[in-house]
Amino acid sequence: MEIDFNFSGNISSINKDQFDLMINENDSPFINYDFLRALEESSSVSEISGWKPNHLVSIEDKKLNGFMPLYLKDNSQGEFVFDHSWSYALNRAGRKYYPKLLTAIPFTPCKTRKIISSKSNNFIDAVINFMEEKSIETWHVLFPEKEESKNLLEKGLIERSGHKFIWNNKNYTSFDDFLKIFRSRQRKNIRNERKKISELGITFSVKDSDNISRSDWETFYYFYRNTYDQRLQRPYLNKDFFNLVHKSKNTLNPVIFFAHLNDEIIAGSLCYKDKNNLYGRHWGAKYDIDSLHFECCYYQGIDYCIKNGLKEFDPGVQGEHKIRRGFEPITTFSYHYILRKDFKDAILDFCNREKIENKRYLEACKRYTPFNKEYKI
To answer: Tens digit of pLDDT for each residue in 117-143?
Structure first.
């Protein structure tokens, strides 16, 4: 049976029931149809915001049997793999860097499947043909699963390395059990950070798919927006997005940690979870309180993972301050197809040099981890 590949545009043009059949229990919530639809229906992702959906699908016997998120982008916002210097270089050469093609989950730097198909090479070929037809200079695949990386490399995409910090659950029985991996000084520092919060009388509640309400989302959105207002920026996500997440709470599995003081909610951090992982995504607070961010965004998530048997906690990108709090450095990867040889050679040289520097940085991070010698990372 012949398989047809086509660019479908919006996620709403794809049959949800057929899409859901392709998703398995090990997939993150971010490749879920409802998450992608919430982004688009809320207009958080749209041509106006620089994210024009151009998803690639494969059809066999009139049924969907493959999907890859794909966007035509006219900026580099909300990606967390920074290529501004690349765009400047190509523009100086008198060529157009934008629009570019991007395979990623908008505003979500988390590893997840990016090609939902057993025939990923055909998807890669289809994108490259589209680039040649439209004279699009670059295509970027961000944070794919390890299994996809081999095919991307074989098809001529350039590997670029980065880094982030992940918490690993070593079958801890409690937060105090987790603290045993630290040297005594840092163990004391963490306890002091937590003590600062408890002595202020700040307590925490957890809202998940079982007990979260619409009013909880109103409260969280206030905190989320406040973080952007303080930087004089417009938030990537709007209130409609969070309302749509609430409608799909049973499939997207949001988890909010709220901080309370004197019967008032003063801060919140939003995560999502899947079978094995917790993903920290957004946070905000009404007051600037010392150590509140660490407690709300890190320690509450770690405690939640221990209590619920989750294997990893990905709190988001960047921030070597996470090392002192038990998060371990790992290498992240993105892949880039450059249409023309002259620019490809330049990007390959850039990525090779960057990879060396990133390796040195991660080695330095590992040397300064505050763990006992008996603990191996």
So the answer is: 988 889 999 999 999 999 999 999 999
Omega cis (within 30) before 53: no
276-324 pLDDT, tens digit per residue, is: 999 999 999 999 999 999 999 999 999 999 999 999 999 988 788 999 9
> Max CA-CA distance within the chain?
67
Q: Residue 9's beta-bridge partner residues?
A: 55
Q: Which two tokens stand for residue 347?
A: 């990007």
Please tell me whether the overall predicted TM-score, pTM, comes out greater than 0.90 for this model.
yes
> In this structure, what are the phi and psi dihedrals at residue 7, rounded to the nearest 5 degrees?
-95, 115
> Among residues of the chain, what percentage have pLDDT more than 70?
98
Mutual angle of helices 239-247 and 33-41, in 10-degree steps: 150
DSSP string, 294-351: HIIIIIHHHHHHHHHT-SEEE--B--GGGGGGT-EEEEEEEEEEESSHHHHHHHHHHH
Which among 142, 71, 83, 73 has a CA at the least distance from the CA of 346? 83
Q: Which residues contact 220 (CB under 8 A, 6 or more apart)?
A: 242, 256, 258, 268, 270, 284
* Architecture of the domain delimited by 170-310: 3-Layer(aba) Sandwich (3.40)
- What architecture is domain 3-163+331-367? 3-Layer(aba) Sandwich (3.40)
pLDDT at 377 over 60: no
Asked if 117 and 295 count as a contact pair (C-beta separation under 8 A), the reply is no
Residue in the block written with tokens 């599995």: 253
Sequence-distant (≥ 6) Cβ neighbours of residue 111 within 8 angstroms:
28, 143, 144, 145, 314, 332
